[in-house]
Amino acid sequence: MMTVPVLLFLVGLLLLVKGGDWFVDGAVGIAQRFRVPELLIGATIVSIGTTLPEVMVSATSALGGHGEIAYGNAIGSIICNTALIAAITIAISPAPVNRASFGVPVLFFFIAAAIYLYRAYTIGTFTRLVGVELLGIFVLYMGFTVFRALRMPKVFADEDPDSLRPGPLWKDLCLLAVGAVVIAVGANLLVNNGTLIAQALGVPESVIALTFVALGTSLPELVTAITSLVKGHGTLSLGNIVGANLFNLVLVSGVSTVLAPFSLPAGKTIAGYNASLVVDLPLMVFVMGFMTLPALVRGKLSRWQGVALLVTYAAFCVFQFTL
To answer: How far apart are the two ends of the chain, measured CA to CA in Å?
Structure first.
């Protein structure tokens, strides 16, 4: 009876790996063709593609009346992306940071986070207006980034022109599109069948939600990060993480909130206060600040940041299991 879920689980894993391979190849090809830094491509095109599972899960949850899942998926994915996936990348291969490319998505993220936190701490409800505001930030970010890249291509050309050997544009676009679809399908197979396997083994539903759902929708970022490291494109991975975090706030939360407004989940409390306000939201801001602000000041990431973030994520998981 467990044979089919196990086989589909393995198929999902294989699709994620191959989809990540195609996606990174297409993104790097586009970056080389238009002489823009990989960090910029990672923060826009790659981030949208790897955020697709979060968009699908959150939109479906919101329409089904499960706003708490849409909320937890977005916030949990940001924490996971930063304190686990980016942390692994930084711990293994800390890379220099292009402040001009890195600073823009970071700035937009904290602007969106300020709006999100204001709503969460003042009214505790995310209305359609909040969703429109978040989607507006997404449109502004994409417009600003594309305009900046088109107007100042030479500023972004940090690769050696002699080393650029781009293939046909249609091939890169196909790799990008097919890779995104394959990643989304693979993540879906992995999450669904992993959940079935866990249930058959008697794993509690709370553990299933924490591991397979929250981490499952972040698998594309993890696969892209590992693939980028293997191929020697660490800055693409970092740009993807920062961009994906921004899109989790403005695109994932924006779409789900516009479709179906919801309130903060009220399940867990700490000393009488909502656990989301005490732990989840502050931790989201902290891990992003801890990863990005020192890098913007020093122009590079350090291995100790990755290690510290991994320890933070482990503590967060322990907290979630024991609360």
So the answer is: 34
